[in-house]
Amino acid sequence: MKHILSLFTIIFCAVTSFSQENTRVNLLTSDASWGKEIISMPIHFAPQIPYKGVEEIRFAPNWSKQGKDDFWSYVFVWDINLNKELTATDLETYMQYYFDGLMRVVNKEKEKKLPKTVALFIKKEKSTNGNEFIGKLQIYNAFHTKDVMLLHCAVTQYYCPKKQKSIVVFRFSPKEFEHTVWNELNAVQLTKKPCEG
After folding, report:
1. In angstroms, rounded to a whole number, what is the distance separating the alpha carbons of residues 23 and 31?
2. Class of domain 2-190
3. Is the pLDDT confidence value at 18 over 60?
4. What is the pTM of this model?
């Protein structure tokens, strides 16, 4: 866990100094073995994502360990000034900006042309919990494998019209949705009900 926190502290130290309010952000609950990171939005490596707010990330204990079931499995949430329902096209565009920007920052081989992120999302017709999507992303992993990898993704948007904002929860893993690691990802929950507080 210390390795994960140190790694992401280095990556995001150039973002800006977080306000005291942001350092106390606690949007998600997970057990103590999960790593945590807070990023202000707009995100410095993906400024094309046009929202203000905060991103909180929780990393599975073996996020950085290749060969483990929870390798590259993590959850993040956006608490942002998004005042409409997302579309599958929105998510595809934002995730392309996000991962292309992130990998460009992490990549040490500056002469290397990195493969672009490919994203595909489908909106669930019967959503029991907000605005729900499932998707797949093909990303370049500049952190560990230095190769293209496939990520499965589940997204839930809670739109709060009275507050003109949204809470958007993203869950990622290379493992298929039927794998038991998704039980661990789904156990990472919002600290309080969406649109409260």
Report:
1. 19
2. alpha beta
3. no
4. 0.87
